[in-house]
Amino acid sequence: METYEDPTTWAPEPVRPRWSLALRFVATLLFFPLLCAFWLAVAAVLFVVGLFADAIAAVSEGFERGYMRFMDDTLGGIARLGSWCVTWPELRHEGDVPYYRARVEKVVGNWTRQASAPREPKKARPPVECAIPRRVYRGTGGRYVAEVALAQGWELRPTDVRKEVRLWWSAASRPQDASAANAAADS
Question: DSSP alpha helices (H): ranges in 17-120?
Fold first, then answer.
């Protein structure tokens, strides 16, 4: 863990009251389908407007970049509306530290398996950076994510642990890997 981070933010989140979670879960069941329908409707409208805006984008690249940024911000903002939603696993396992530890180990292990996979010709490179969302490590804290990730060869990236823990696959920056990658690209 980097020294510039506040150690208190890396601790586990406090356990939320069961009644509050149950109430939010019921609200999620009612609200989430509406949120999905709204997101799809906005995406459809932006797509249709984008078809007409394509004529302008053929002349101006700045317009295209601006429209894509506007579309990304709009759809991302609608998706963030559901950040208060509570899922069934969260309701069932709130305060269950072994469950969250297993969940962190599974997610980090999956990213490690993807990042350490050999590069296949004519395929995308394996991911070298990832972000573990707070929902995964809520019961154990970001410190446990960092410990598991560091043990598997990841490096910590500057991150806001209240949202996610960002990791970098350190093997991707080793000189022998870079020379092997260059040799494979040359052939």
Answer: 18-57, 61-80, 88-93, 97-116
